[in-house]
Design goal:
The longest helix is centred in the last third of the chain and has 24 residues. The chain has one domain. It has three helices and no strands. It is an all-alpha fold. It is elongated, with a radius of gyration of 13 Å.
Length: about 80
């Protein structure tokens, strides 16, 4: 589960970079936030289950960072941009 969470974080980062362009902030709602939430959940399960704990911790930290970055980005654009 740790690898799945870390992979989800990488996907969330990819979509967060794309959504950083002007007028593409709506992608945060459709791609970045769900991917970051799934990465956080899977990484948390990986930490609890002690399955590749270091990768799960990296995925958890990256998922939390990307989630808050996307929320910050959405707050700048009024939830749309």
């Amino acid at each position: 589960m740790g690898v799945l969470g870390c992979g989800g974080s990488v996907i969330a980062v990819f979509f967060a970079i794309i959504a950083a362009f002007p007028l593409l902030g709506w992608l945060n709602w459709l791609t970045t936030l769900p991917a970051a939430l799934l990465a956080i959940i899977f990484s948390g399960i990986g930490i609890v289950a002690n399955q590749q704990r270091s990768i799960a911790v990296i995925g958890l930290i990256a998922g939390i960072f990307v989630f808050f970055w996307a929320m910050f980005r959405l707050s700048l654009g009024g939830g749309i941009f």
